Amino acid sequence: MAGKNKNKRDTEWKEAKKRCCLNAETVQMAKKLGLNPKSLIKNITNKSQGWKKPVYLWIREMYEECYSDSIKTSEKPIRKI
Q1: Taking CA 26 as the corner, what is the angle to CA 22 and CA 29, rounded to the nearest 5 degrees?
Q2: What is the pLDDT along the chain (81 residues), one digit of tens a residue?
């Protein structure tokens, strides 16, 4: 049973990757953000929706908003006294 569910999820992610023109890095970002493949497919831009960003930019922007603080704090140099 667990194998079927995992297989289904993998195929959904492959479909989302293909339809949204995502690379492996962006898919990992989406998974880390807790997004599911259906929500990515739902947010594919249409010609009449010029205000929407492409899915890969939308994911990257959300990832930077959520994890930029942890990235910035880890890059600070340690001062020696």
Answers
A1: 150
A2: 567 778 888 899 999 999 999 999 999 999 999 999 999 999 988 888 888 889 999 999 999 999 876 555 555 555 666
Query: Tokens representing 14?
Result: 């492959």
- For the stretch 57-77, what's the b/e string if a residue is b when 16 or more beta carbons lie within 10 angstroms of its beta carbon? ebbbeebeeeeeeeeeeeeee
Contact at 8 Å (CB) between 59 and 35?
A: yes
Q: Environment class of residue 43 by beta-carbon count within 10 Å: exposed (0-12), middle (13-18) or buried (19+)?
A: middle
pTM for the full predicted model:
0.73
